[in-house]
Amino acid sequence: MSIVYDAAARTLTLNTRSSSYQMQIGPLGYLLHTYYGRRAEGDFGALHLPKDVGFSPNPHELAAGRGWSLDTMPQEFSGANAGDFRLHSLKAEREDGAWGADLRYVRHEILPGAYGLEGLPAALDPDGEAETLSVTLRDPALGLEVELLYGVYESRDLITRAARITNTGAGTLRLRKAASACLDLPFGDWDLIHFHGRHAMERQPERVPVLHGVQSIGSQRVESSHQHNPFVILCDRHATQDSGDCYGLMLVYSGSHLTQIERDQMDAVRVVTGIRDEDFTWTLGPGERFDTPQALLCFRHDGLNALSQHYHRFLREALCRSRFSRAPRPVLLNNWEATYFNFDREKILAIAKEAKELGAELFVLDDGWFGKRNDDRSSLGDWFVNEQKLAGGLEPLIRGVKDLGLQFGLWVEPEMVSEDSELYRAHPDWALTVPGRLPSLGRSQLALDLSRPEVSEWIYQTVAGLLRRYEIDYIKWDINRSLTDLYSPALPAGQQGELAHRCTLGIYRVLERLTAEFPQVLFEGCAGGGGRFDAGMLAYFPQIWCSDDTDPIERLTIQRGSSYGYPLSAMGAHVSASPNHQTGRRTPLDTRAVVAMAGGFGYELDPGKLSEEEKERIRAQIARFRRYADLLREGDYYRIGEEEDPADYAAWQVVSRERDESLLSLVLTHPSANPAPLHLRFRGLDPEARYTLRLELFDAYAPEAEIGEERVYTGSALLYAGFTFPRLFGDYPSAQIHLKKIAD
Ligand code: GLA
Predict the structure, then answer these.
(1) CA 550 to CA 573: how far, in whole Å?
(2) Catalytic positions, written as ranges
């Protein structure tokens, strides 16, 4: 049993293999959070001594004692306007304007399996080990009940959380805030690691101390955004990649989100995460309920790498519904950076033919194949073929690609509309616009109002129509602007605050249907690169295009940042041309491949422009990737070196779950004339085993290197003594070391 109720101590404890999480039904039925951390047994209620703190209010019933305040005791799901001035988790408003939340325990239930959420993606129970704890709290004055849901995955060290709010009163209730999770850490000195960025520079890791006051990470774009990913880590001030206490909070949500971290007057820390509450309201009639998105919580005592590995496995194995999540993915070639909008059937077929000769398995036709789309100013919404470019339609093109022995993939952006389109001319009111005001444009386009059932139905029918009509093996599903001008004529005046969340529910409704109906299609998400790179999307899409920046040196940070929460198998990563189209930087072809292998490996260049020698190298790269594909997809990923180190290199390692195979990759980012030896210690190996080590150096003049030579080392030597690299030389050289355990 991973969930234990101790009736005498009034505690509810959630145990995973390495962590324990405990709450206690405290005085007056307030649900206190007593502990989350390394696995431990017992009642942790005594950690939290009541204390008379001036200006921290006391519940009326306990006022004589004065020592007990909601404002200082750790809460499981904080209320509002009832004595706790710290971050609120729930705020509701009655018809007469009375507002807040004062939540007291009513009952709890322990159930087998995972719980589902209305209209939202939630973790599954792939191994039949999940257990669910439901704790119901009530605010009788406001007439509401909150069911706190906890999914416990013992062997995965993961706890899911969500809240289900029901209007139990006779009148209408307006939710003004409904968070997914609240986590109080009453003691400790914590750093916050979060992932900020911008278009073509997503998920840059930043580590800062948690200071007094409130820090906010969020998005108001109705997409999880390039700017702030809905994932944060709180770690011990001294935690490293390989040691120290770390907590992760990841939202399974793709819309406007908010995570706030507060260090309060008593130095305690509270994190509240969920739907962004500013501009949000939700109206509940009597008996109606609202489910919040799910949050995934993980605690590890042994550093950031272990935390990441647990998220990677969980997303791959317990969240993603796609059969491709754990299956080999085809090596693709995408024509975007090869042609942009400038192509016809002959050009595409010529590229596909070369792609096949290089060893690719899937050809992807990107933007520009529909309507009269010759640049990015028109035709979104007109998902029928551009006959000017592709005379005879898609059929002969697809037949040509298939005849080459390749799978066929297609780009779509169905949540959007161009003003210059037949769709917009027919349904101008489907685009988000505030009446009386010109809407703002993003990439010259408008966003469709996915809160309207007829719009999401149209999107579903349109894409399903393409998938039924054509032999399509892969879809790249893009969205290329943030949402603004939030107003829907389909919602009553008092419910406009629901629009952002309703749009997010709309896209989930579409994806739920499409991915269930077409399970044989590999879907890759995209949002101008990685603008919607989150666990909500990863429930449906096993991979997401990581960034529009394909420069491999820039990608080192983008992919390393992404790796804190998301598995390599989720990150679309391509080898593109040099000089790079976004930065102008020149990099060796093999370095581009080494970086793309730390992701969903593919190519995005014109193979017709390659020399014979480059083609030969690409064939070797694809063969190498195939050898390592299972290891890279399923293995445990380690970031080598600390973020704050001014390293001249980037290195990462993947180790198979059985510890019998490993691949370490390294890119030198700053060569120097007389470098100190580059020495690294491996991670994750079996110290008792012996390994064959094979070193591959790329694009480097390295006279000392014994490239390709195999040597034998013990696991303990590689783990504790390490390995010194032969000198790497030149612009951005790279290396890979493959280790294979020698059978006893
Ligand atoms: C977005 C994507 C790119 C490409 C273009 C096409 O920017 O991220 O990969 O598909 O759209 O317009």
Answers:
(1) 8
(2) 534, 614
